[in-house]
Structures are given as C-alpha cells and as structure tokens.
Fold these 4 entries.
Entry 1:
Amino acid sequence: MDVESAPKPGKPRGPAKRGHGCRNICIALVATLVLVVVLIVILAFTVFKAKHPVTTVNSAKLEKLQVSLNVAPLGLDLNVTLDLDISVKNPNKVGFKYKNSTTVLNYRGEPVGEVPLPADEIGADRTKQMNLTLTVMANRFLSNSQAYSDFLSGVLPLNTYTKMSGKVTIMGLFKVHVVSTTSCDLSVFVSNRTVGDQRCRYKTKL
C-alpha cells in the first residue's frame, strides 16, 4: 500500500518574497524623498533665505543749478538737474529679477521729481551700478515755504525713495516674491554741489 507523506515545510514562495522586497524599496524611496524635501526646506530658509537688496546713493551731483531770487515780487526761480549714482546690491545666493521700478526724489516729505528704473536682473552676490539723471520739478519744490530759507542757508534736505518689486527663484523650485524699499535722507550743499550726511533705511516684504 502506498502511503503519502505529509508535505515538508519549505521556503516562502517566489511572489511573496518579491512583494516583500518591493515594499522595502518603496519605503526607502519615500524616506529618501522626505529627506530631500526637508533638506531643500532647510536650505531655503537658511543659506538661500531671501534677503533685501541694498540700494545706496553713492553720489548726487547738481549738474545744473540755476537759482535767482526776485525781490519784488518776492519769488525764486529754480532750474535743477540732479545726477544720481546709485548701486543696488543683491546679497542673495540666487539672482534677483525685478520689474520696472521708480526712484522718487522728495523734499521735506513732498515728491519733487522721479526717474524710472527699467526692469532687469541682478546676479547672485552682484552689485548693479545705475547712473540716473533727475530733473527737479521746480513748481513743486518752490511751493514749499521753506525752500527760500533752505537755499539761503546753503543746505537742501532731500530724500530718495526707491521701491523694487521682483522675485528670486530658489534652487529652481521655489519662487519668492520680494518687495524692497530703500529710503535715503541726504543733504545737498548748494555752494559746492556735494552731498553729505546720508542715512538709509531698508524694508523688505516677502
């Protein structure tokens, strides 16, 4: 009589083993992806954290300054052209691409002239030089009652205000919109047409 023996326990079959290996591979891929994302986020908020561009008025020259004081009736005739040498430094580790912007010249809180800044891009850790010619709007300037006394004292308190709106792209993945404003107070000495006592304030919105 033939007697069948009970099947001996053997190793797991092939498909089950392959399924277990695929699961391990998927877990490893997900873990690697999570680590990469975490690393990118850390870099985005540390090394590549968006910083404000720094605008500096290197010099301001009164190329055309024609002033005449009328005694009767009392009045002041003014013709002023101001040459501004401005530098914009991009401290970011990536390029800063900005839209059309404007630099406004203010006198005692009132705008008296402006000059456009065409859209451009500043490379990482680069500084862009800009030579701007700004014609002062005499009618706005002279509408301030303190203009006469400031000219007689020989010192004009002016302010330049620059607003730059653009974006930086971090690692080709994240686009961070940046709005940077720079306000610089400066004194222009009428006698020798030089600039001194410059103080700048910066503000950035991300």
Entry 2:
Amino acid sequence: MAGFLDNFRWPEWECIDWGERRNAVASVVAGVLFFTGWWIMIDAAVTYPSQEKMNHAFHTCGVFSTIAFFMINAVSNGQVRGDTYGEGCLGRTEKEVAPGLAVFFQNAFIFFSTLIYKFGRTEDLWG
C-alpha cells in the first residue's frame, strides 16, 4: 500500500505545475479532511451535550483514528518498502512472508477477541 499514489498523475494544466506542489497539495487536502472529521464530531458533541442524547464513548473511535494517523505517518514509505536497508550490520534480509503474516494474524485475532470479549458479554448477568 505504501506509495500507491507514486504513479498517480495529476491532470495536466498549463497554469499549475503539480510536480513541485504535490506534497503541499496532499498536506492541505489531508489537513482539511482531518479538520472536517473532528469538526463534525465536535459539532455533534456541542449540539447533543447530554449523555442520553449522545454517548460520550462515541469519541473513542476518533481518538484511536487520530492516534493511528500519527502512528502510520511516523514510519517513512522507504522503511515500509525496505528501501532504507542497505549495507548495515544486518544488511538486506530475505523477503519471508510467514513471520509478517504471523504478526498480522496475531494482532488481528487479539483485536477481534478484545472486541468480542468487551461487547459480546452483557453486564446484566454479572452478579
């Protein structure tokens, strides 16, 4: 998924040179989308301030999405593709798929088990 927009070509207009402004345009568009998402949720929270009308737990999704946004952007695309590994003490490694799949499935199963354990039970039966 890293670099999936690398081959994307902006429409060719003589008045705009997209080559030099690609990072600026992408940053502004991402910032506007990020701001709009939070603005919508803040507006809903102000419009429906009581717990009965809007559960305050709904903010959890946005908080985790924001944390994920920063975590995803903390890693460069070169590190994801493996371009940054060169002549170091480890050098380049073989492209084994199984360990990566194991880590992914471990975290996916833990994530889904957490959701099922948290939301699949009813608190009425505790006692």
Entry 3:
Amino acid sequence: MLAKSIQEAMPMIEEKIPHIEYYSYTGKDVPDPLPDTVAASLTKIPHRPLEEVLWNASSATPLNAHKQTMNDKLYYIFTSGTTGLPKAAVIRHHRYIWIGMILHYLFNITDDDVLYLTLPLYHNNAGTIGTCQGIIFGTSIVLRDKFSASQFWDDCIKYNCSVAMYIGELCRYLLAQPKKASDSQHKVRLMFGNGLRQEIWKDFKNRFNVKQIGEVYGSTEGNANVANYDFKEGACGIIPCCVPFICRLVFPVTVIKVDTQTGEYVRDKNGLCKLIKPGEVGEIVGKIRPDAGQAYPGYVNDEATKKKILFNVFKYGDSAFLSGDLVEMDDYGYLYFRDRTGDTYRWKGENVSTNEVEAVIQKVVKLSDCVVFGVSIPHCDGKAGMAVIADPNRIVDLSSLFTELTKRLPAYSIPLFVRITSQIELTGSFKLSKTNLEKDGFDINRIKDPLYFLDRKVGTYVLLDASLYEDILSGRLLL
C-alpha cells in the first residue's frame, strides 16, 4: 500500500521537480554516486537534520488507537491438513512468547547460538517457536527459503550453525541421502522439533553426530504441549506422573485411557475419565482452565473448535482439549507416540496402526515415502489396508516386500493393496498428505498408477486388473 501510494503521488512530485528520477519504486538499481540531475533535484526538497527533528519532538506519550493486551490475536496459523483441509488456528501474543520461551530454556538455547531454519514460516514450528528465538531472545537465525536435503549440512557448515529445527519427515529425507564427509563436519549440537520416528532416531543421531535431539509434542491449535527436555531416545515428551494426584491438579497436560477396540474414552463408575498406567496407550489431552492461563484458543471456525473438546474429564463441568494423538507411557512418565486416533482402521476384527505399518514399509524399502490407510470393500466388515509407496524408478521388489512384511507384521496388518506412484504430495510442514489418495481408494478407473493386490495363494502382490477388480467388488473373491 505504501509503494502504491508513492507511485500515485509521483506525477505530482515530478510536476514540481520535472527532472527527478526515482529508483526505489521502479525496480531500477540505485547508482552510486547519484547522477547530477538527481542530486540537484534532491537539494530542492525541503529537509532538516535528524538531530534537530528529534530534539524538538514532543515527549508526550502517543495516543493509543487500541490498548493491546497479551491475550489479543497476533496472527492465524493454518494447520497442515494431512487428512483434510487446513483450518485456521488462533495464535495470541502470550502463546507466541510462552511456547518460545519454554523451549528456549529447556533446550538451553542462547544468544550465542546460530539457528538454522529451513521450514516454512507460515507454520507454527518455524513461524512461532523458531522466530521467537531471534525476535524475543536475540539468537541469530539463518533462513533458507526452501528445504534441500543435499545442502542441509553444507549450509550448517557454511553459516556456522549450532542449532537446527526439524519437522515431519525431514530427518528421514536427510538419512536417505548418500553419505558424505559433511555429515559430521558441522557444529550442530542440538536439533529440535517434532515428528522424528522412533525407528530411525538412533541411526540419525549416530550418523550425523548430533549430540542432543529435543523432540517436542504439540499442535498448532491446541493447549497440550510436552517436550523431551532430557533427550531420552524415542520419547516425544515426559509427564511427571509418578504422583498422579499432584499431576492431575497441577500439570496442564495428561493422558486419558482409551478403549483400543471401540475408541471410546474409558470412564469410572462416576462417569469420569481414567488416567493411563505405565505400559498402556491413551490420548493426550490439555486441561482447559482460562483462569489459570490454560485456555484453548482453537480454530476460527467455532464448530471445528467444539469437536475438539471433551467434557466431564476429571470432575463434573470441566473440559479438556482432545489432541487426537495416542501415546504410550513408560514407568518414568516418558511418552512415546503410537498413532493418531483417525489413523487406525479395523480389519478382521483387529485394530491396525497406520503409523506402525508405514514405519515397517519405509524400513524395508529403504526410507521411501509411504502412506497407509484403510479402504472400504463391499461385502466386507471393516477396512482393508492400502499402502501407497513413492517409487519413481520402479525399483521396489513386491515379492521381497511381502516376505519382509510377513516377518515383521501380523497377517491382518499386511496391506491388501499396494499402489506405486512417482511421488506423494507433501504438506507445507513436510507431512505426507493422504487426502486425495484416500479418495482414490483402490478404484482402477481413477488410478493411473500401477496398483497391486495381495494374492496369498501365490505369496506375492499381483497386478490388479479389471477381472480381479470385479471379483473383489462382487464378493466372488473371499477376503
């Protein structure tokens, strides 16, 4: 708007000083020294020394058009939209400072550090947690406009980075790169973020010689945040649950028990939720207590916000934010991510974890992108598993894949369908998107990629043709 208004005003200025040239707003390179005609024109523009203007400036406090508070909206951040459309979440001033400050001190980041950011600033990790380190605490930040797996460590060496952020599948992409000397010649002591899979945690740390990996758990819109601040391998955070009663009263985040068969929240005889015990899997929730600074800002859309709130959690009338994430807790209170509540499906009367199947397939096919989801089949209860593997060079051996899956997964978890594609769409936060793939299902009329079906009689995946497709739809082929 400023540039536009100046451009609109230029004809009037040129009328008074006909031979002026303006460079800043026309895209011209500014010459040094300025041409004589321009220099002469500038002398005709009224000007006063800056010191004189400052000396004579009023000392009165400027009038406020609006009295700002820490609870005001700072900006909106859109969720990544891995299984649906992104939704606008509200980020307030206090959240920006609070979440950045917590991680700053938990991970001992200082103003002597240099933080490498190659994540999109329009998402919460880089845009809030990352930028806060520079804006609030003075840590130097190196920005790269686009992530490059091949240049990541070279950049860290070039700019003397000591801290870096990751998210989603970024660490897996780095691990999939050919080994080279710069893998361990950098000075990065700490990497922090979320989404580092437990299966590759140790390999990543050892190969790249990163001494500390700080996994953070949280969501853009939620109030349930925990961190692995003592760098326990594989953990996404810790809750001090050795004293459950104190934890319930003081700690704002907890894990409630979920029936793994029905997905329902387990309640006691009084109708209140139960905390999980070590070795159990439950859902992370964040207690909503606006008076204690534990509000749930939610989304811009009120209906979407209401769907994420559970009532009567630990006492009648209270409420909590539902994260949708299932975690397992050990004896010390460390939490290990297991799955999303929406990322499981039932087949043959059993629950299948898409996260588990994806991790196994990626291990077998050497870290290629892979997503797993359930597809509905006529005349069948539940959903059958489908894996979509990114394999642009068509090098995946499907017979070997099936053999390896039988060694590592129960029979009901092995996908019935495998789709080979050139690439899988990524969200802005490096998460693999399932939305369009789920819409395609196993419909050979929509899918142009090679699509295979598991023929257990021959012990391998076979190409799904029109005849086999009709047999599955009609129920002639018993599954």
Entry 4:
Amino acid sequence: MNPSQPEDLSKDSQYSGRVQVLEPETGRSTLRITNLRESDSSEYHFKFKTRRFEWRSVLPGTTLTVTALQVQVTRIISVHQSQTEAELKCLSSCSPAGRLYVWFKNQQRIRTQQTSTLTDNFSPGDTVSCAFSGHEDYRSPSVYPPKLPSVSVSPSGEIVEGSSGTLTCSSDANPAANYTWYKENQTLSQGSDGVLAFISISFNNSGNYYCKSEN
C-alpha cells in the first residue's frame, strides 16, 4: 500500500490465513496465495534481510491479475408465454484473448457453445453461469429470474388509523430485482428496495395490494 513502508502480507488482515512463504531451497523463496480474490490483483514485491543487511529491489514487482467472471444479459430477442429468447455475455475483468468459454444451464454444460456470447431460450426457472475452459470449477455467479415474490406487513396485526406502516416485497433474483407496487390495478411505486411506506394510514388506504418483481 505504501512503497516507502512495505507491510508483511502475512500480517495484512485481507490476506489472513491465505498467504504462505515457502523456501524449498537456499536462495529461492515462493509466495503462495490461496483462495484468490479479484482484490488480490496488484503488484507484488519482496525484500530479504540478513543480520547485517536489508535489500529491497527498486525494479517493478510481479504483477498478478485475478479475473472474476460475470454473466450479463445483453439483449432480449423475444418474449413468449413460457420462454424468453435472450443473448448473454460472459464478462471478465481482464478478458484474455483466445480463451474458450464454457456455459452452464441449470448446472449442465452446454457443449456446443465455446464463445463469450450465448443466445438461447430460457424458462422462468433456469439458471445460467459461465467459466473459462479448463477452469470449470471457478464459475461465475448464476443469473436467474426472480422467484415468486413474498410480502410482509409491519407492524403485523390490526392497523390503527393515523399510525404508520410499511409493506415490503422481496424476491430472490440475480441480478437483484426491481419492484412495482399496485393497489387494485393502480401503480403506486417502483424501486429497488420493494418498500411501500405509509406515514399516516387512513381508511382510504384499505384495499388489496400487489407487488411485481423483475430483473
């Protein structure tokens, strides 16, 4: 972090339990980092010490780039009653040239697809992820449409006129869902938090409320 005051990685909380210095032979030292994270991308340096002398190179260090994969929906081609045709892209922070990709639909490998783009038909319950070929165990987080939303009321029980209260809509989705609240067929609010708040509830607020989640 500070070139003039280098810090021992083994004492850095971000690397706690993940770094090990191996010295299999005299004159050679190896730094091993396990459970790599994208935040580990950096330039790494070393120094060595004897009882009378300390030396640290002023040359550029060793650059480590750790990539994280992410699936992004780039285009909705058509929407049918039970299926959506869409184009998906597998994105990485370093996008290495010439890499082959592996796509997974509902945890099953799509063997015909090896490029960073996938066009396919998707049902409401499908999950999709991607990986680099040869690194199938390190997949991107899965993307999937919202599950059936649930609604909670606070405070629960009897609502007294003049009091405050909230309706909260939530749904498991990746990417995160946006929510729309309706009273009967009237749109009330839209947003990412799914909360419909009442400052001072009146009798006119009585009715049937619904929420919709989409991503």
